[in-house]
């Protein structure tokens, strides 16, 4: 029987590739999005993946959205917490709005989404949770104290959750991507982009598919002995 997977921020960039990889592995996929309806329509029309709009930073919106997913696709077996934003500024110039907007979306959403599916996973004695962190949550980055703090927080959250649920057939793992060829990275100035690539030992940016393949593996039934782990997929740019 096909398992139901939810991918937050699942209609663009890394999330889009993850949604497609899970669909290709045989899952029924629900891809969530917040505001870009055009991208949501594109992936739905191109792939048949179901799309749902809600704000993952809002607990009640997550509850309503997941209830709809469960009704239409079935109980959630696989959760990929991928949604994230940036609001960059050096800390001495950062506003409280910039801090909390990033923290609520990038870290608070993990509570919202995971809390709403974890009890069902425990009852069914199966679950796969994959949380998307970042290379900058591992090493820090100038102008991203909010983003780096949230992405680093994902590591501790995931380890604790993995320990709590290991005996219930639930695995919890983290992927910390490096710089990938997405629209956000492509928008960088050429000199900045060249400097980034020069610092990657394998000599290229990652692709969304590089990340998606590992997510699909960790979501598979066969990955049941892997939990509490962090996978640094960054071309050797940062060796933790």
From TrEMBL:
GO molecular function terms listed in the Swiss-Prot or TrEMBL record: acetoacetyl-CoA reductase activity
CDD domains: BKR_SDR_c
Taxonomic superkingdom: Bacteria
Primary enzyme class: oxidoreductase
Key word Hydrolase present: no
SMART domains: PKS_KR (SM00822)
Pfam families: adh_short_C2
Family statement: Belongs to the short-chain dehydrogenases/reductases (SDR) family.
Record-given protein name: Acetoacetyl-CoA reductase
Organism in which the protein naturally occurs: Massilia aerilata
Name of the coding gene: phbB
